[in-house]
Write a structure and sequence with these properties.
- Pfam families: Peripla_BP_2.
- InterPro entries: ABC_Transporter_SBP, ABC_transptr_periplasmic_BD, Vit_B12_bind_prot.
- Keywords: Signal.
- This is Vitamin B12 ABC transporter, substrate-binding protein BtuF.
- The protein is α/β, with parallel strands linked by helices.
- The protein has 2 domains: about 160 residues, 3-Layer(aba) Sandwich (Rossmann fold); about 110 residues, Rossmann fold (3-Layer(aba) Sandwich).
- The protein is built from 13 helices and 12 strands.
- The strands form 3 sheets. Strands 7, 8, 9, 10, 11 and 12 form a 6-stranded mixed beta sheet that branches. A 4-stranded parallel beta sheet has the order 4-3-5-6, sandwiched between helices. A two-stranded antiparallel sheet has the order 1-2.
- Helix 5 runs antiparallel to helix 6 and helix 6 packs parallel to helix 13.
Length: about 300
């Protein structure tokens, strides 16, 4: 349920991050939604309204530059020592207390109406969007550029690209199982759709998204008939034992899919699956190890 709530509140959109190669100056920038963002130079205190972006801040910025975190930010450990400002609903008074010079937000998590209220308090809000792994890596570079750590962020993003590309090469000639990632194993059954970072991570890991339709929603609700039609080879949700006594007991007709018949039903780390942050390559590796397990020596 925690993963489902995180996804539905954090359905991240697509697109690049236009400021990723711009120097920050007292000027007006455009964020990934094309919104104008006015900055009076490099911000001294920043905050993010999503755990994935908080992870980026701790990766790139000096810890003292991070003014606060949200109630959902639990990684890295240093995040637990920061003041907490609720992001859902947004604690506007709390934001005024910690006084960030810039707030980062992810499209789909923070409503535009909340961003406008934050900006009415004199705090600029910069949105990022993600639909591919590359969007996430550009997002790291954007955070570095806007916070005065462009060189460091560039090195880190390039290192992650190198690791991602190495995994791609390792899996390029492997069979490509059809993978269904269920984020709400009840009726309606919500899954990761095709137009998501998950699909791109899966491609790098050597699989394909079993969902063969591009739905308007990034986390569409599927019928049992549709799941039978696409017949996934692998299901990512809870582990096989739990799913066998809950999901598949509730929907016994789905025991006909290949994933159940071959006991290829796995639980992966919720945070890695749901957060488009700097651990994105770690998530690719976890997916790769599930769908292409290495033989035991």
């Amino acid at each position: 349920m925690a993963l489902f709530l995180g996804i539905l509140l954090a359905a991240a959109g697509c697109g690049g991050n236009p400021a990723s190669h711009e120097a920050v100056r007292a000027d007006t920038l455009r964020d990934a939604l094309g919104r104008q963002v006015r900055l009076a130079g490099t911000p001294r205190r920043v905050m993010a309204l999503a755990p994935s972006l908080t992870e980026m801040l701790f990766l790139v910025c000096d810890s003292g530059q991070i003014a606060a975190v949200t109630q959902n930010c639990d990684y890295p450990a240093a995040a637990k020592r920061k003041p907490v400002v609720n992001s859902y609903p947004v604690d506007f008074e709390g934001l005024l207390r910690v006084k960030p010079d810039l707030v980062f937000a992810v499209e789909g998590i923070t409503p535009l109406a909340d961003a406008r209220r934050i900006e009415d308090l004199g705090i600029p809000v910069y949105y990022q969007q993600y639909r591919t792994v590359e969007d996430v890596l550009r997002g790291i570079e954007t955070v570095g550029t806007l916070t005065g750590h462009a060189e460091k962020a560039g090195r880190l993003a390039d290192s992650l690209r190198t690791r991602r590309d190495a995994i791609r090469r390792e899996t390029a000639n492997l069979p490509k199982p059809k993978v269904l990632a269920i984020i709400w194993p009840q009726d309606p059954i919500y899954v990761f759709g095709r137009n998501t970072v998950f699909s791109d991570k899966l491609a790098a890991a050597g699989g394909v998204n079993a969902v063969d339709t591009v739905f308007e929603a990034e986390s569409p609700a599927l019928t049992r008939e549709y799941i039978l039609k696409i017949n996934p080879d692998v299901i990512i949700s809870d582990g096989f034992a739990k799913m066998d006594t809950t999901f598949f007991r509730q929907y016994p007709e789905l025991r006909r899919v290949n994933a159940y018949r071959n006991r290829r039903v796995y639980r992966l780390s919720d945070d890695l699956m749901s957060r488009p942050g700097p651990r994105v390559v770690e998530s690719i590796l976890e997916i790769r190890n599930a769908i292409h397990p290495q033989p035991t020596p």
